[in-house]
């Protein structure tokens, strides 16, 4: 569409209300895409493993054991982190779209998203990994 | 009579062929997203954090939850909304990054087939779950 050497239109790239280009707003969008796609791929696997309850209790329990492996447990923390970011930033996107002051406060809202994410993930990490870490360290 | 001028930068597109599909898709992402915040974060909290996290999950735990129509409906709603919300998101990603029309077409076919498969399988499992199935 646009040729490579096209002159930039002044006033559209800077200060002209572009939330998504080149700045923090763009990276929040990139992270939103990546976390969304990863979660969708996980969902595919997760419905297949849960479907094993229809095969037999043993088959289901055997597959669920893999979720309790220390490495996989760590991936679950990553999954929860990805979903939590996607949810919080999704609320921010809705506020930007539907709240009259949303665009004005989008940057503050992004820092709020990140702060809430950290505040939830610290206890979240502890409760998700508690058993795995005590098993590894204590070795009962 | 007014002077007839083309509007600058307006693509010539027959108005009758335009549809509101992308608008509904945009709106659906926001409405389903709002519901999914509750459904999915609730699911993750119960399954991964509460009461020993993932270590408590086994066949008996699932049977206990699906004994209640409330949790059956929760999981069914989550399955449908997450698949359509996620599928619509991936459709947008494919539209953005696929360079050839044929690549775009086949990636989307693969996506739609996987969505139908997962929604059908998940719905079937929720409705036909039998807690007394043999080992």
From TrEMBL, chain B:
The chain crosses the membrane at residues 27-50, 70-88, 109-129. It comes from the Bacteria. One of its GO terms (cellular component) is membrane. InterPro entries: SQR/QFR_C/D, SuccDH_FuR_B_TM-su. One of its GO terms (molecular function) is metal ion binding. It is found in: Membrane. Keywords: Heme, Iron, Membrane, Metal-binding, Transmembrane, Transmembrane helix. This is Succinate dehydrogenase / fumarate reductase membrane anchor subunit.
């Amino acid at each position: 569409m646009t040729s490579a050497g096209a002159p930039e239109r002044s006033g559209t790239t800077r200060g002209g209300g572009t939330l998504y280009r080149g700045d923090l707003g763009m990276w929040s969008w990139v992270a939103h895409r990546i976390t969304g796609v990863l979660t969708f791929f996980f969902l595919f696997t997760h419905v297949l493993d849960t479907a094993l309850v229809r095969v037999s209790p043993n088959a289901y329990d055997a597959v669920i054991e893999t979720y309790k492996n220390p490495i996989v447990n760590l991936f679950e923390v990553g999954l929860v982190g990805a979903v939590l970011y996607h949810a919080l930033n999704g609320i921010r996107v809705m506020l930007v779209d539907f709240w009259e002051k949303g665009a004005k406060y989008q940057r503050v809202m992004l820092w709020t998203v990140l702060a809430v994410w950290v505040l939830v993930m610290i206890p979240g990490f502890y409760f998700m990994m508690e058993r795995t870490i005590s098993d590894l360290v204590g070795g009962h | 009579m007014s002077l007839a001028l083309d509007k600058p930068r307006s693509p010539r597109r027959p108005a009758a062929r335009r549809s509101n599909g992308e608008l509904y898709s945009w709106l659906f992402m926001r409405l389903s997203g709002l519901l999914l915040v509750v459904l999915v974060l609730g699911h993750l909290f119960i399954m991964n954090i509460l009461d020993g996290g993932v270590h408590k999950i086994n066949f008996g735990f699932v049977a206990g939850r699906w004994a209640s129509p409330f949790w059956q409906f929760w999981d069914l709603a989550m399955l449908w909304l997450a698949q359509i919300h996620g599928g619509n998101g991936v459709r947008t990603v494919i539209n953005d990054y696929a360079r050839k029309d044929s690549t775009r077409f086949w990636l989307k076919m693969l996506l739609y087939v996987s969505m139908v498969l997962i929604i059908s399988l998940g719905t079937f499992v929720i409705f036909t779950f039998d807690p007394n199935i043999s080992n």
